[in-house]
Design goal:
The structure holds two protein chains of two kinds. Chain A has four helices and six strands. By secondary structure, chain A is an alpha+beta fold. The model of chain B has no long low-confidence stretch (mean pLDDT 96). The chains are: A alpha+beta, B alpha/beta. At the A-B interface, helix 1, helix 4 and strand 6 of A face helix 3, strand 11, helix 6, helix 7 and strand 15 of B. Chain A: GO terms for molecular function: iron ion binding; iron-sulfur cluster binding.
């Protein structure tokens, strides 16, 4: 079977996006000065986090709400809330 | 919404719904709050649901629940890069009632299960996030939601809010989980015609097969992969502890693609069409990670209480049973009119006397052992594959000589003492 890249995988999912992010990077300087790996940009299963040179871009719209970034951030630098009721990811199958 | 209920259950997954169902059946006034558009919209599972614990709640549920296939064969693969050592069991006693377990698609199953709680009398409210517990005089008396005027009161609040239980953390029942206490798992549902599934897995129409895959499926990291058969689709997924993912700098979706393209796996998926991609955390800290589960006016059930037996891939059944035990304690507390921690502690006692905590206790050091000593996944599985290859390749070497060579090659790399030490350590962790 054809392998889909992440972007194509993400297209398979239904999202109802809120206008406001449920994920907040508290201090972008910590990412810049203390976190050379920027590990959230690697392990996030939806590539929500993208480092843009001086700040972390947060594409919360594609978030699976798994919680990995909250637990995995080595500096507890991510404020993680649930999206507003009924919003966010909507799994249809499994 | 300033009405008062006997019980508020936060989260309409297996644990919360089982609890709401049982409380409602016993005549209590129950509010079941779900943050998703419908129950199951936020929930992910590899797909195996065990029969026993649900049957205790709903006899012969398999006659009406949206299930995929009863599992008749469980295979275990110890996989290397271009080979696999397999072990499994297929039994037709599992193909007939009452069955042993089923594959399910959670978005469908959870909606059905929640509808049973509603039939029993619970009030289900979707699309509502509980933002905090309302605490008065050291006692939980209700919840605050993200709806306008969204405060609701009850004698008991049941936290069934899943692996990311922000609510039990707010109450101080546990600290933030560590990356080695959770497994990050990604999966895909792949549509495939029924006859192709039956042919490839050697199944009849109403029979299912599960394959657990160790070794190269996680590139030797602590975790597993799985391949399960639904009616007309496959669930394929892979996960490792979040700490392993961080350490090895793994992108989970790349690991999933690696698995899907593995020569041992690929032929099963040929011609399939991806239908959904899902990620979720599994609480795998086990016995040592179970938080405080009872407080004044509050209990914690299911994933929120870390009730997952990772070794036996049991989770949803433990969730349901914990929900049932909590409900029984709540019903008793209701009769006494006492919702203090001491009164609700019957739930904790029942939980700790049940197979749930007994099983978690049995494997309490397993995750830690396998995380600390990666050789089991990294070295021994490839070693086992080499030994099997050597043993089954006919090349004129007498069999006794072959056995000697194999034993020698296994101990040569590590030394006899280290091998014995590794075997003893693994045995101790799972005995």
């Amino acid at each position: 079977m054809s392998t889909k890249n992440l972007e194509e995988k993400q297209y398979l999912i239904r999202f109802k996006c809120d206008t406001k992010s449920h994920l907040t990077v508290l201090d972008h300087d910590i990412c810049m000065t203390k976190c050379p790996d920027k590990i959230c940009t690697i392990f996030c299963p939806a590539e929500v986090y993208k480092w843009e040179g001086t700040r972390m871009q947060v594409g919360y719209e594609g978030c699976h709400e798994c919680g990995s970034c909250r637990i995995g951030c080595p500096y507890q630098n991510i404020k993680w809330e649930y999206p507003k009721g009924g919003h966010g990811i909507i799994f249809r199958l499994a | 919404m300033s009405e008062k209920f006997d019980v508020i259950v936060v989260g309409a997954g297996p644990a919360g719904t089982a609890c709401a169902f049982t409380c409602a059946k016993n005549g209590l006034k129950v509010l079941l709050i779900e943050r998703g558009e419908y129950p199951g919209a936020k929930n992910v599972m590899g797909g195996v649901l065990y029969r026993q614990q649900l049957e205790e709640l709903i006899p012969e549920f398999w006659k009406e629940a949206p299930l995929e296939r009863p599992v008749v064969e469980q295979r275990f693969w110890m996989m290397d890069k271009e080979s696999v050592v397999t072990f499994g069991y297929k039994g037709l006693e599992w193909a007939v009632e009452p069955y042993n377990n089923f594959t399910v698609l959670r978005a469908k199953f959870d909606q059905w299960f929640a509808s049973k709680a509603v039939e029993a009398g619970a009030l289900l409210i979707n699309e509502t996030v509980v933002t905090e517990c309302i605490v008065e005089n050291g006692k939980v008396v209700g919840v605050r939601t993200d709806r306008p005027d969204g405060e609701v009161y009850a004698d008991v609040v049941v936290l069934a809010d899943g692996v990311n239980s922000l609510l039990s953390k707010q109450l101080g029942f546990h600290k933030e989980f560590r990356p080695d206490e959770v497994a990050l798992t990604v999966m895909e549902v792949i549509n495939l015609p029924k006859d192709k599934i039956n042919d490839r897995f050697n199944l009849e129409d109403n029979q299912g097969c599960t394959i657990e895959i160790f070794g190269d499926s996680t590139k030797g990291n602590l975790g597993t992969a799985f391949l399960y058969t639904n009616k007309e689709s496959l669930n394929i997924g892979v996960g490792t502890t979040l700490s392993s993912m961080i350490k090895a700098k793994i992108k989970p979706y790349e690991l999933l693609d690696y698995l899907k393209n593995h020569p041992m796996v690929k032929p099963f998926l040929e011609g399939g069409e991806s239908a959904e991609y899902l990620a979720h955390l599994i609480p795998e800290g086990g016995y040592h990670s179970v938080p405080k589960v009872v407080g004044n006016g509050v209990v914690v059930v299911g994933d929120a209480a870390q009730l997952v037996n990772a070794i036996h891939r049991e989770g949803s059944n433990l969730a349901m049973h914990s929900g049932l035990l909590a409900a029984e304690a709540i019903v008793e507390a209701n009769k006494r009119g006492d919702f203090s921690e001491a009164s609700l502690n019957h739930y904790r006692e029942a939980l700790y006397n049940s197979f749930i905590i007994k099983d978690l206790e049995k494997y309490k050091d397993a995750t830690h052992t396998f995380e600390k000593y990666p050789q089991y996944f990294k070295d021994y599985i490839p070693m086992l594959n080499r030994a099997a290859s050597q043993f089954f390749t006919v090349d004129g070497t007498p069999k006794r000589e072959k056995q000697k060579q194999i034993m020698k090659s296994m101990t040569a790399e590590k030394g006899t003492f280290r091998v014995l030490q590794d075997i003893y350590r693994a045995w101790k962790a799972v005995k």
